[in-house]
């Protein structure tokens, strides 16, 4: 342990001293940069060798993973020049690109790989209150320009502006004096943390706390139990739960030992995952996973190989890694003839760059089951010659090995996600039966065909080796009648977004349906997936690389059930006897519309939209309901002038929800602008059925779907029968 501790110390010292590392973007772009760990052990500064003093920085908390060796396209392209033990990649959260680095020696590379790993682990293990202190100190070190560890009132005011706080000067000045224990007219790091906490005291939480506190000072176990029963509607087990919460969130030892909760502990609970709007019981795997595949929504990506748009953007195996890490369970591979007999993956007939099929399959093999153990469907668009199809078949067999599922189900239903754990299913063209011509012709049923509607249907040759590996057979859709009488369960049709109709509900109780964005969306924009989910379509493919409302809805639906990429469809969409029609939700058997009240109380530490010192946001909150057409609705609060820090709205929005099991709720915070479009600040999307009633925090996410801790909105939720 000591040796490890000693080595850990040496790594940090080496990183703090700083060193030159080569940043690699491609085979030809390799430049020296100076990197060093700041004294706070939380920030890494870097600059070009020619820049005199201007360092840029990034925070360790932005790093999601460190990969050692040649584990990125850029580093693989220079593998012959730089050995793997000197190379490493930093992967950032969200859609920010990777940083590929080469150290001068193995020892230096190890110092960074182990050092950053250890610092990330420290961050992971922090509790909420330490995380908040950490966040405040990060800001403090930005403001402490001369790095003497202290800031005066003027600097503190400037810093608060950067943190989006617009405060009353006298109020802030008196708190500053209180926090300045050393009477030096400056605050050190910890004093600033205290100052900030006094400034951000939450009056609306204090009022609620005092409503339930018998003595006005603390909540006894009974007081807290009453709060959990009355407000959070917890019912049974509230008394035991109150004790667990005191144990978990009360910072004061004395209070904890007396089974009491202080206002600090109460706030810690309200801002914790348990106090969030998302019901923790639905966070982990809670659904029955043993029903046929057609009974599940499956998280699906379109043109998975693209990082940007579909005309000239880069293709990359990184795009597969990103999608698979987000729990995606259906990826797409467009295969074309490449040089030297090597099939390549890219968006055909465009300028998007090409990647080797074998690299894509290797990446899929490595990352397929990191986020979820449930089956992965690989949708193949095959434009290759017979010779290159034989190469494709060999790669799929050799690289995927036992993971590849080849025996087609002969039963009347598809197998379940549970039965197919850790299996990869290929979807593509397949011969009807073995007696067909071994290089028979199959019609081209895919997006390329949709793009060239005017040309006659292409007849394409298929090689038997590849056909044998296909589990889900792509078929041309004739009619619902034909499907009902003749379709086999493993046959799947694909539809462009505009062709999906409500007759699908019955079809989708037993067949898998894939929907993809129209070929006109060359900018990789997305369509709204909700209309397709309402009809029971399982594989609603979206461009994962494009942030926005559509991906927010996809992330929102798939955050529940352990992020497994499979969500059991509501029973109304699985019943064949009594068909549900999303256009007439009130005609169903057990029709019980609900009233949904959202009181938007306050906001906390909303991020700035523009990083200008003087700029403060004017926030408003909009609540949007997505679901059956009758449920689609949005309402917003008024905007608050100049306060991103602790805006108070206290406004109640009310909705009627006709089909709760298909509804998603999206909370959006925007910066009001009367002259132009409002700017996006943050959002959070949640299935209606996963919402917890009572006083809750909604933890906001960035445009990329990553956390922007500690930004949140504080709401009260009430759901009643109409």
TrEMBL record:
Co-factor: note: Binds 3 Ca(2+) ions per subunit. Two of the Ca(2+) ions are bound to the C2 domain.
The organism's place on the tree of life at top rank: Eukaryota
Keyword annotations of the record: Calcium, Cytoplasm, Endoplasmic reticulum, Glycoprotein, Hydrolase, Lipid degradation, Lipid metabolism, Membrane, Metal-binding, Nucleus, Repeat, Transducer
Binding site for Ca(2+) 3: 303, 332, 334, 381
Chain residues that bind Ca(2+) 5: 671-673
Domain C2: 574-702
Topology class, membrane: Peripheral membrane protein
Residues covered by the PI-PLC Y-box domain: 469-573
Domain annotation PH: ranges: 13-121
Active-site feature positions: 302, 347
Catalytic activity: a 1,2-diacyl-sn-glycero-3-phospho-(1D-myo-inositol-4,5-bisphosphate) + H2O = 1D-myo-inositol 1,4,5-trisphosphate + a 1,2-diacyl-sn-glycerol + H(+); a 1,2-diacyl-sn-glycero-3-phospho-(1D-myo-inositol) + H2O = 1D-myo-inositol 1-phosphate + a 1,2-diacyl-sn-glycerol + H(+)
Gene3D superfamilies registered for this protein in UniProt: C2 domain, EF-hand, Phosphatidylinositol (PI) phosphodiesterase, Pleckstrin-homology domain (PH domain)/Phosphotyrosine-binding domain (PTB)
Binding residues annotated for Ca(2+) 4, in chain numbering: 616, 618, 642
Enzyme Commission no: 3.1.4.11
PANTHER family: 1-PHOSPHATIDYLINOSITOL 4,5-BISPHOSPHATE PHOSPHODIESTERASE DELTA-4 (PTHR10336:SF31), PHOSPHOINOSITIDE-SPECIFIC PHOSPHOLIPASE C FAMILY PROTEIN (PTHR10336)
Protein name, as recorded: Phosphoinositide phospholipase C
